[in-house]
């Protein structure tokens, strides 16, 4: 069933992002209940969507913040997240970003290399602080997702490879201004084969045993995120199966007494609550192709151009028999294409067309390329 656009929005200038805060609230409640059932703490990945109303709801549900830049750390703090619920990840943290997080006394840095570890120690010492760190390890687990969003293989730039771990541990012993508080892994994004997380849990158990054989106890385990959503049929699965996801770690992780377990969810929490609303500028026909040219483009939703990803496209205006269209945007790039040979009701200039499941990695990845105006954000409902 196509999305229903409220009547008062049908004449609003397009494109714009439409966020259903009621659905977001239901999603957060489901995630919180499933996580609490297994005593797992959730940190929301701000990189998915950092809009203030989104963050306000996330924070109200008691989740922490997972940040990958200094500005995300600041946005989390400004949005009411307590510093001791903020973690800072990322393979290329600058000195200024590290200093900002140190001054805020955030809970933990997820450190991805020996050089980074040494810099965190140096900067913490200069400020008379002791930084809490978790080592992000590369577990060499295949997430079975798009190669651009796979992060847990040895060929990826992220994390510390196991072959380098002994040297990193030796370095840690010589650094007085860092405290090892945990282990961090993250293998990728948009993972729909949940058996991958079973493999990951087993790998984390092996890693923890490695540390314990060296006499190192880990107060917390961070198993990353990556839970995917249904882009093909969003209405059938508006809220992901959080019970199954958290149940895997609750059942398979070999936790030690008092040990905390953290996950970092982004897309799974916010993707389905967002929709990109657009209008048809022109319908252009050639001998080979019929184009529906929208006023939204890759500047508003880059995922199809960047990842060749699928978003469900719906015409909310025209009823009637379907025809096939290449749905494209107005940007001067051939990659500015949302979908090829998409079945839509016969489409005309002015029709309202929406791209579903755009709440994650939509607005947050938008750009001003071609000197485009930034699309507005509209919020419906609430708690």
UniProtKB/TrEMBL annotation:
Q: Which GO terms describe its molecular function?
A: diaminopimelate decarboxylase activity; pyridoxal phosphate binding
Q: Which residues bind pyridoxal 5'-phosphate?
A: 226, 264-267, 361
The annotated active site, in chain numbering, is 332 (proton donor)
On assembly, the entry states: Homodimer.
The protein's matches in InterPro entries, at most eight in alphabetical order, are given as: Ala_racemase/Decarboxylase_C, DAP_deCOOHase_LysA, De-COase2_C, De-COase2_CS, De-COase2_N, De-COase2_pyr-phos_BS, Orn/DAP/Arg_de-COase, PLP-binding_barrel
Sequence positions that bind substrate: 267, 303, 307, 333, 361
The record, for SUPFAM superfamilies, names: Alanine racemase C-terminal domain-like, PLP-binding barrel
Tell me, what's a Pfam family for it? Answer: Orn_DAP_Arg_deC
Gene symbol of the encoding locus: lysA
Report the EC code(s) recorded for this entry: 4.1.1.20
Which residues belong to any copy of the Orn/DAP/Arg decarboxylase 2 N-terminal domain? 27-271
- PANTHER family in the cross-refs: DIAMINOPIMELATE DECARBOXYLASE, GROUP IV DECARBOXYLASE
What cofactor does this protein call for? Answer: pyridoxal 5'-phosphate
Q: Which reaction does it catalyse?
A: meso-2,6-diaminopimelate + H(+) = L-lysine + CO2
Residues bearing PTM N6-(pyridoxal phosphate)lysine: 47
Per UniProt, the keywords (alphabetical) are: Amino-acid biosynthesis, Decarboxylase, Lyase, Lysine biosynthesis, Pyridoxal phosphate
Biological function: Specifically catalyzes the decarboxylation of meso-diaminopimelate (meso-DAP) to L-lysine.
Q: Where is the Orn/DAP/Arg decarboxylase 2 C-terminal domain?
A: 16-359
Q: Please give the pathway this protein is involved in.
A: Amino-acid biosynthesis; L-lysine biosynthesis via DAP pathway; L-lysine from DL-2,6-diaminopimelate: step 1/1
Output this protein's name.
Answer: Diaminopimelate decarboxylase
Write out the similarity annotation: Belongs to the Orn/Lys/Arg decarboxylase class-II family. LysA subfamily.
Give GO BP annotations, semicolon-separated: lysine biosynthetic process via diaminopimelate
């Amino acid at each position: 069933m196509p999305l229903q656009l409220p009547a008062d929005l049908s004449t609003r200038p397009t494109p714009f992002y439409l966020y259903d805060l009621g659905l977001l609230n239901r999603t957060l409640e489901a995630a919180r209940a499933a996580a609490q059932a297994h005593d797992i703490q959730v940190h929301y990945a701000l990189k998915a969507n950092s809009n203030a109303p989104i963050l306000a709801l996330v924070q109200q549900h008691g989740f922490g913040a997972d940040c990958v830049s200094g500005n995300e750390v600041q946005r989390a703090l400004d949005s009411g997240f307590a510093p001791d619920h903020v973690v800072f990840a990322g393979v290329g943290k600058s000195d200024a970003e590290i200093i900002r997080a140190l001054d805020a006394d955030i809970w933990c840095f997820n450190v991805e290399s020996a050089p980074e570890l040494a810099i965190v120690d140096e900067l913490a010492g200069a400020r008379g602080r002791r930084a809490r760190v978790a080592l992000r390890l590369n577990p060499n687990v295949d997430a079975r997702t798009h190669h651009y969003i796979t992060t847990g293989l040895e060929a990826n730039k992220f994390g510390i490879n196991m072959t380098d771990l002994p040297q990193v541990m030796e370095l840690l012993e010589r650094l007085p201004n860092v405290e090892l508080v945990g282990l961090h892994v993250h293998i990728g994004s948009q993972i729909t084969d949940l058996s991958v997380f079973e493999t990951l849990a087993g790998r984390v158990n092996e890693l923890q045993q490695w540390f314990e054989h060296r006499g190192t106890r880990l107060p917390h385990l961070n198993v990353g995120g990556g839970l995917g959503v249904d882009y093909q049929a969003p209405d059938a699965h508006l809220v992901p199966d959080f019970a199954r996801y958290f149940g895997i770690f609750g059942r398979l992780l070999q936790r030690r007494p008092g040990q905390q377990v953290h996950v970092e969810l982004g897309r799974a929490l916010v993707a389905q609550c967002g929709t990109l609303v657009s209008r048809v500028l022109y319908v252009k026909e050639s001998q080979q192709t019929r184009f529906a040219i929208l006023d939204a483009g890759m500047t508003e939703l880059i995922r199809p151009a960047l990842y060749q990803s699928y978003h469900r496209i719906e015409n909310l205006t025209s009823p009637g028999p379907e025809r096939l269209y290449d749905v494209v945007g107005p940007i001067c790039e051939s990659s500015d294409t949302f979908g090829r040979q998409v079945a839509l009701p016969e489409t005309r200039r002015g029709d309202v067309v929406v791209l579903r499941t755009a709440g994650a990695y939509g607005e947050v990845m938008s750009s001003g390329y071609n000197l485009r105006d930034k699309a507005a954000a509209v919020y419906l409902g609430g708690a």
